[in-house]
Write a structure and sequence with these properties.
Length: 161
């Protein structure tokens, strides 16, 4: 971690971010470059750093949020080390995905769309993954787990630290 922000916010930023902010000071054209670097550094865009970006690049905060929410490469919330995607498309749904969904929420003590407190998992639901023949389908970090059941959830998730 590098210098502490001097705009009264609590955010720390890396040296790389500090350098980018000074390189693009007063230049709104640097917005995406700076946000991408922050995303890479933190795994998400912390609010304090977005405020700092707005101030230093002279971009309205609403525009910073607009860009941050438009591009799927950016996320406003911390993500877990492991990313679970459970398909709730029609084929998966009728083959029992809702039970798997509830089992994941119960196992991790979070709701879909959230990240566990220890940042071990982020759990998202998605629409058809294009693998309906092996429904219900769940992926963890892109690894496919076919024919999921509520009973398998605990064992499958235990493989991911
Ligand atoms: S509906 Fe789930 S993979 Fe197609």
């Amino acid at each position: 971690m590098g210098a502490e922000c001097n705009c009264n916010c609590q955010a720390d930023s890396s040296k790389k971010i500090d350098e980018l902010l000074s390189q693009y000071r007063g230049n709104p054209n640097g917005l995406i470059v700076v946000l991408a670097a922050i995303q890479q550094d933190n795994g998400y865009l912390p609010k304090d750093l977005m405020i700092r970006v707005a101030e230093e690049l002279n971009v309205p905060l609403t525009d910073v949020y607009g860009v941050a929410t438009f591009y799927t490469a950016f996320t406003l919330r911390p993500r877990g080390r492991n990313s679970i995607n459970l398909c709730l498309g029609t084929a998966c749904y009728v083959k029992g995905a809702p039970e798997v969904h509830d089992a994941i929420e119960k196992e991790l003590k979070i709701k879909a769309g959230d990240t566990t407190e220890d940042r071990r998992f982020t759990f998202d639901v998605v629409r058809c993954l294009g693998a309906c023949g092996i429904a219900p389908v769940m992926t963890v970090n892109g690894e496919v787990h076919p024919r999921m059941t509520a009973e398998k959830v605990s064992e499958v998730l235990s493989k991911y630290e």
